[in-house]
Amino acid sequence: MGYAEAYASLMSRHLAARQGEGLRRLQEGHGHAERLFAETVWWPAFGHFEHLHPEYEISDFKDGFRYLDYAYTPKDLRLAIEIDGFGPHWRNIGRTQFSDHCRRQNDLIIDGWKVLRFTYDDVKDTPRYCQQKLQQFMGRWLGEQRQTEGIDWTEKEVIRLFLRIGRPLTPGDIREQMGVGGKKARALLQSLARKGWIQPASGEKRIRSYCLSMEGKDLLL
């Protein structure tokens, strides 16, 4: 499934499940910046929209409701993602509104949410930076929280390294970053490739580098 089909499926599922203010917010509040984030940041970084919720409704400290641009909620994780544009809203924001904004983020954190914020300019002009920040976060979370069957701790560290660096890795990269010998570095990559979590990125008869496979990215689900 390509991006356009996957995004259309994401939106149709959520539109069908919403009603009232939640439906109106999704129809009117999910705008250009949020769509651009989905296309240029999230999809290239992970290749799926599982557990990603646009315009996610949460209770606020005033017993009302607010909406996150995106929430990512696989098992054991609640990640709030906000895209901030430097427009009239931010230039003209008053002290009361600024205080309210800070309280909102504090409440999210107290309620157990992780929070990542990206500016619209970064989403538009440097999407690779945003992808890397998300991948670095996921890599840390994978290492600290997830108990993944069939993968030992050294292999998990290699997966975290792929996520943190965000590019194809060579045996030399593994050797340098993890402090292991060349033979051990190649064995780790070959083991992960046999399990289907990484795949060759360059080289045919002799593979020079590897990248995460779709199965490897699915370790985040």
SSE blueprint:
Blueprint: H1 3-17, H2 20-29, H3 32-46, E1 52-59, E2 65-72, E3 79-84, H4 88-91, H5 95-110, E4 114-119, H6 120-125, H7 127-144, H8 153-165, H9 171-178, H10 182-194, E5 198-202, E6 209-212, H11 214-217
Parallel strand pairs: 3-4
Antiparallel strand pairs: 1-2, 2-3, 5-6
Helix pairs in contact: 3-7, 7-8, 9-10
Question: How would you describe this protein?
Answer:
There is one protein chain. This protein is an alpha+beta fold and 221 residues long. It has two domains: 3-130, Endonuclease, Chain A; 152-220, Orthogonal Bundle (Arc Repressor Mutant, subunit A), CATH 1.10.10. The protein has helices spanning 3-17, 20-29, 32-46, 88-91, 95-110, 120-125, 127-144, 153-165, 171-178, 182-194, 214-217, and strands at 52-59, 65-72, 79-84, 114-119, 198-202, 209-212. The strands form two sheets. It has a four-stranded mixed β-sheet with strand order 1-2-3-4, with helices on both faces. A two-stranded antiparallel ribbon has the order 5-6. The two termini are 17 Å apart. The mean pLDDT is 84.
